[in-house]
Amino acid sequence: MMRLNSASAVAARQAARLANDLACHLGAGLSWLWQLIRGEVEDDTRPRLLPLPMQHVRLMLMAEDLPRASLALAETAQFHPDTRPPEEQALANPPGRDYRETFAMARSRLDKIARILELEDSPEPGQTRVIDHDDLAALNQQLGTLWEDASRLEEDFRRLDEEERVLREQEAALENFANLNVDLGALKRKTRFLDFYIGLVPRENVSRLEGAVALAGHLLLHFLQRDNHAHVVIIGPSGEREKQLASVLSSAGFQALPIPEGITDKTPEQLEADFRARHQALEARRGALKQRLVDLRTKHCEQLLDARRMLLLAEPLVTLDPSIHGVKSLAVLCGWVPTRAIERLRENLGAHLQLPFALETRRPTAAERPLVPTVPTHNRLLAPFSTLVKQYGIPQYGEIDPTPLFAVTFLLMFGMMFGDVGHGAVIALAAYLARAKLKNFAAFGMAAGVSSMLFGFVFGSIFGVEHWLPALWMPPLQDPITLLKVALVWGIVFIIAACSLGIYNRFAVGNIQGALLAPHGLVNLLFYLGFLTGGWNLATRGGFGLWPGVIVLGSLATLAVHQWRHLSGPVGEKMLVVFIETLDTVIVYLSNTLSFLRVSAFSLNHAALAIAIFTLADMLGTFGTIVTLILGNLFILVLEGGIVMIQVMRLQYYEGFSRYFSGDGHEFAPLRFGEVKKLRS
């Protein structure tokens, strides 16, 4: 009995400990989920729905400390400059125009030198130090001297290339005239009574041209045929028929071959020997120039790397210049910083600056929201979806980041529309094998392939065959009506969610009227819910229902009154516009809902197309069957897969983003080392 009680006590303690651990893990998970929703996740590789909270900072410091402040801000990499026109008098001290111009000249010279010497190293800034104007001026002077040496070397290469080009042209001319056993010097010299024309004519025009020039009293000699052209010499008397002959030559597609200088006073053998000697001399000169290039690169490599480091350290101050203003020796610098980075920025400034400074922070005002940058999520798996979202726009500060929702809904719709284990595996494998070329989009392709495979198991389809795998649910063609109902429900949920997100986003950015009365606002959502409820009642009970009717009519009336108040013009014109806009609201929501039927329609199309290919293959022999199956599946993968991708993007952009995503924001671009930015004069 004692042992039993002891065992029960141990089991109770273990159960309590397990429950406590589960509670701790659950609490941590809920806390992280709340941070995710609030946008307070510290790790930028984790997805977030709401934007990272930002603060407007105002840094006041002595002007002579500006170079150190720029280094501190670049090291922190959390400061997005605010380039709004300053209210105070523009700062005339450093960096100033002289600093910017010297920096621009030095960087331009360094880029040209690096191009000539083929330098590829991009060093880190190394130990931070202040780069003043005197340092930049000295660097610019050194680079100017080195640029003169490099430009002379480049000019020598250019002259050598020009000589080689002339030599190749002379060789080509010699080859063209090699089969013409005449004195080229005589052909080139002008005579009083004879005209000579040497050139190319399309092969099919030779006979016609020969007859035409004969009428003009000229002779045509066909001395070489190469590819689709014939080399000809036309000889005839000079005189009044020159203009007539010129029009004939033009209509026949005649192209003149000029006789270059230097090949008319030597035999072909002498010319070939001369060409070989000149080629050898040019190669020797090129080898000497390449050696000079190697010596110059070796001699100045470290100097150029040091120059790059100096420019990396000077660049932050030049980039900040449009954001700097102040009075006399006091400088003021404004920008946007994530709330979580304020203290780190303050500590870094304290470690770098030698003179007192003040850092003021405040939350963005409602009027400033369009100016506040949005910090993106740097998640490797979501990177390709983020790229597709950016094609539509950047979330405005305060709006929900659509990337996680876009990724989930995109994969669900693609998988349902292209559900097949075999085809999905091919897509995923192709994306994996091409990951070096696809880069971030390799994850996108593999995710789409996996989604297709999962829905393939749901439908029991592998390369269009539906009897090899047991379906977890049902094949698409088994009950098309049910599949269409599922797509319709999916579309309704998608539209309601998109409208709800749009209402939240407008509230978040302070657009209260838009959240209530704008297209896809709260009143529109109430109309849609009432419309759906009335439609359900009509289908199941035979009547629309009182309350759904009241909600629909009330919503439409509210929208009509709102539109009427914002219109100007004759009463009849206003009535027509209001009627059309109100009718458009009904039609848009109905058509948008039915638009989602394509989700199931394409899954049915996929199955039907596979059946058609197998039916065609069964009508052929063994070899024809194999070829038909291979080409048919390739057709499904390339054509249907591409169409499905386009249709999913259309649903996302038009039915989703247009309802809840403005795309009017701009991305957080903090000051950091090594980012080349456009200089402002």
UniProtKB/TrEMBL annotation:
Keyword Membrane: yes
Topology class, membrane: Multi-pass membrane protein
Subcellular location, record wording: Membrane
Gene3D superfamilies according to UniProt: 1.20.1460.20, 3.30.70.2170, 3.30.70.2750
Segments passing through the bilayer: 405-434, 441-463, 483-504, 516-538, 544-564, 609-639
A Pfam family of this chain: V_ATPase_I
Key words of the record: Coiled coil, Ion transport, Membrane, Transmembrane, Transmembrane helix, Transport
UniProt feature coiled coil, ranges: 150-180
Name this protein carries in UniProt: V-type ATP synthase subunit I
Organism field: Thiorhodovibrio winogradskyi
